[in-house]
Amino acid sequence: MIELKIPGLGLIELEHLVCDVDGTLAVDGKLQDGLVRGLSVLKDRLSLHLLTADTHGKQEIIDRQLNIKAVRIQPGEEARQKAEYVLRLGAESVVALGHGANDAAMLKEARLGICVFSPEGVAVETLQAADLVMPDINSALDLLEKPLRIVASLRR
């Protein structure tokens, strides 16, 4: 668990990390450099959940690399499926990472939504739904590893 005491927002207790895969963790079906280490550092504090439509058809390889089985999102209403997943976990305990239009609703539902800039771009609606915006996935994971950075950014 990651516990944050943020002036003006109160106590946030994060138990789950929900990540979009294509474009956020991986580009063109390949994990971004440094990602395995970044996620492994967090696994003792957060339960990791990967959501994917498997755009590039390489999710089985990514699953093996990360030693986790991603949840496959079915074609159609992808944004709703991702948001519902966050709600089933208990949105108040979720930090969600994404970049695409189908990630906006999950970032909005999560207690902490982080929009990650991607080589694929960032959907404006996802940017607007986020609590924080990070320049890349490794910076976002570093932020979770050093949560006082979150407090510094969100204090009111």
What does it look like?
By secondary structure, the protein is α/β, with parallel strands linked by helices. It is built from seven helices and ten strands. It has helices spanning 35-42, 59-66, 78-89, 104-109, 124-129, 137-145, 148-154, and strands at 2-6, 10-14, 16-20, 26-27, 30-31, 47-52, 71-72, 94-98, 112-116, 132-134. It has a six-stranded parallel beta sheet with strand order 7-6-3-8-9-10, with helices on both faces. Strands 1-2 form a two-stranded antiparallel sheet. Helix 4 (104-109) links the parallel strand 8 (94-98) and strand 9 (112-116). It is globular, with a radius of gyration of 14 Å.
Descriptive labels:
156 residues; alpha/beta; six-stranded parallel β-sheet; 7 helices; globular
Strand and helix map with partners:
Layout: E1 2-6, E2 10-14, E3 16-20, E4 26-27, E5 30-31, H1 35-42, E6 47-52, H2 59-66, E7 71-72, H3 78-89, E8 94-98, H4 104-109, E9 112-116, H5 124-129, E10 132-134, H6 137-145, H7 148-154
Parallel strand pairs: 3-6, 3-8, 6-7, 8-9, 9-10
Antiparallel strand pairs: 1-2, 4-5
Helix pairs in contact: 1-6
Task: Give the strand content.
Answer: 25-35%
What is the H/E order? EEEEEHEHEHEHEHEHH
Helix content: 25-40%
Radius of gyration: 14 Å
Sheet with most strands: 6 strands, parallel
* Largest sheet, spatial ordering of strands: 7-6-3-8-9-10
Figure out the total of helices: 7
Structural class category: alpha/beta
Task: Find the count of extended strands (DSSP E, 2+ residues).
Answer: 10
